[in-house]
Amino acid sequence: MAENAAVEIRDDREHGNLVAYEGGESAGTIAYFVMDPAPGALVAVHTVVRPEHEGKGIAGALVREFYAMAAREGVAVVPLCPYAAKWAERHPDEAPEASAELVHEAKQQLRNHPELF
């Protein structure tokens, strides 16, 4: 399953979504939030690819861009999303591991603010 180079990925920070577009239509999304205090880590909560776009590497392209975006911003990624966490395990060179303390804090913020998801 090769990652799709034809996918355009855009960050909708205001709504907490990293969105992949294929052929001009939304194909997949990572729902995320930025940990407080800013600039905090980027926390991936959920990755979804529309059924008609599955099997094209869109989820992997989204997670790869999510880590690249965090690197450009100089912040860590906390992959609470199971897909993002598995991707990170398979790509340790692109996905630095977040500290246990940071993961704990991200989970706490999500528990305290369920509207973030």
UniProtKB/TrEMBL annotation:
Which Enzyme Commission numbers does its entry carry? 2.3.1.-
Question: Which SUPFAM superfamilies has this protein been placed in?
Answer: Acyl-CoA N-acyltransferases (Nat)
The UniProt regions of compositional bias labelled Basic and acidic residues, in chain numbering, are 102-117
Name all N-acetyltransferase domain ranges. 1-107, 10-99
Alphabetized GO MF terms: acyltransferase activity
Say if the entry is tagged with keyword Transferase: yes
- The record's region (Disordered) falls at 92-117
* CDD domains, sorted: NAT_SF
Q: Which key words are in the record?
A: Acyltransferase, Transferase
The UniProt entry's coiled-coil ranges are none
Record bears the keyword Acyltransferase: yes
Q: What class of enzyme is it?
A: transferase
Q: What is this protein called?
A: GNAT family N-acetyltransferase
Taxonomic source organism: Streptomyces rubiginosohelvolus
